[in-house]
From TrEMBL:
GO molecular function, one term: carbon-nitrogen ligase activity, with glutamine as amido-N-donor
Lineage, broadest ranks: Bacteria, Bacillati, Bacillota, Clostridia, Eubacteriales
Organism annotation: Clostridium bornimense
Protein name: Uncharacterized protein
SUPFAM superfamilies: GatB/YqeY motif
Pfam annotation, one family: YqeY
UniProt-listed InterPro entries: Asn/Gln_tRNA_amidoTrase-B-like (IPR003789), GatB_Yqey_C_2 (IPR023168), YqeY/Aim41 (IPR019004), YqeY/Aim41_N (IPR042184)
Length: 144
C-alpha cells in the first residue's frame, strides 16, 4: 500500500539524515493522517494519489510565483519537493494514449458536442492520477 511506502521512505530518509526529503514526506504523511482523521476511514491508494497530486499542484503554483519574484531558494525548494513526490504517482499517460481513449469513447457511444459531460464522466476514472486533468477538456473539444 502506498501509505506504508511513504512512511518507510520517510524513516529511511531520517536514517540517512536527508532533512529536506524528510520534511516533504512528513508533510504528505500528515495530510494523509489528517484526511483519515476527518473522514474516520483508511484512505485508498487512489485517495492518497489525489493528495500527492494536490500537493504537487500547490508546489507548481508556488514555483511559478517564486520564478516571478526571482526567489532562487524557493524555486529550488519547490523543484526538490516535486522531484520527491512525483515517483509516488502512477505511470503517467501520454497525450496520444489519452487521445486514443477519448476517440474510442466518442466513437463507441456516438457522442456529440452536447455530450461533453458524459464523455468527461467516462474518461476521468480511467485517467485519474495518471494524466493532468486540465488538459482533458481542451482535448475533448478538439476531437468533437
Amino acid at each position: 500500500m502506498l501509505k506504508e511506502t511513504l512512511k518507510k521512505d520517510e524513516i529511511a530518509a531520517m536514517k540517512a539524515k536527508e532533512k529536506s526529503k524528510v520534511a516533504v514526506l512528513r508533510l504528505i504523511n500528515a495530510d494523509i493522517k489528517g484526511k483519515e482523521i476527518n473522514t474516520r476511514t483508511t484512505l485508498s491508494d487512489e485517495e492518497i494519489v489525489s493528495i500527492i497530486e494536490k500537493n504537487i499542484k500547490q508546489q507548481k503554483e508556488t514555483l511559478e510565483y517564486a520564478e516571478k519574484l526571482g526567489d532562487e531558494e524557493k524555486i529550488n525548494e519547490c523543484n526538490f519537493a516535486i522531484g520527491v513526490l512525483t515517483p509516488y504517482l502512477p505511470a503517467q499517460l501520454s497525450d496520444e494514449e489519452v487521445e486514443n481513449m477519448l476517440k474510442e469513447i466518442i466513437s463507441t457511444n456516438n457522442y456529440t458536442a452536447k455530450d461533453m459531460g458524459k464523455i468527461m464522466k467516462e474518461i476521468m476514472p480511467k485517467v485519474a492520477g495518471r494524466y493532468e486533468r486540465s488538459k482533458i477538456n481542451p482535448m475533448v473539444k478538439s476531437l468533437l
